[in-house]
Amino acid sequence: MLSVRELELRDIPAITDYWLLSDKAHLERMGVNVEKMLSREKWEKMLSEQLRQDYTKKSSYCMIWELDGKAIGHSNVNMIVYGDKAYMHLHIWDQTLRLQGRGLELVKMSLPYFFKNLELKEIYCEPNALNEAPNKTLERVGFTLVKEYTTKPGYLSDEQPVKLWRLGLAEFNELY
C-alpha cells in the first residue's frame, strides 16, 4: 500500500544516502553534476532546518513516499513563494522500485499537502527533458507542458534541456 507523510527527523539519513550513494548514471540522468554534490553535513543541516520552519517560512517542504509503511522516496518543493507557487521534485530512492508506476500515485497523494499547507496557486516541475520517467508521470498526473528550454534548474545542476510543467490549483481541484 502506498502512502505519503511529512518529513521527520528519522528520514534525514535515507534522503542523504540517496543523494550521496546513488550511482553516477542515475544522478546524471536527472541532470545532477556530481562535482557539486553537498556534503553529508550540509544535507543533514538543510533537511533539519526544514523541520523547524513554519509553513510560511519554508524554503523547502518534503513529503516522504512509503510502500507498505517503508520509506522508498520523497517529493519536495523548493523555490517556494508562500501563497503563490513552488517547484516540485520527485525521487524514488531504490532503483529496483523505479519505473513501475508508483510515482504517479505518490505524486497525486503529495500534491494536496503542497497546495494546502503552502497555500499554493500553482506548482511547477522542471525535470531534465531527457529523463522520460518524471516527464511521463507529470503528464499523466495532469500537469501541462509550458515549454522546453535550456536552463540551470538547480544548484546541483549544470545547464541542460528541461521541460517546464505546471499544475494550477483550479486544475488540481477539477482533476482531484
TrEMBL record:
Name of one Pfam family that matches: Acetyltransf_3
Swiss-Prot/TrEMBL keywords: Transferase
GO MF term set: acyltransferase activity, transferring groups other than amino-acyl groups
N-acetyltransferase domain sequence ranges: 2-163
Protein name: RimJ/RimL family protein N-acetyltransferase
Organism: Taibaiella chishuiensis
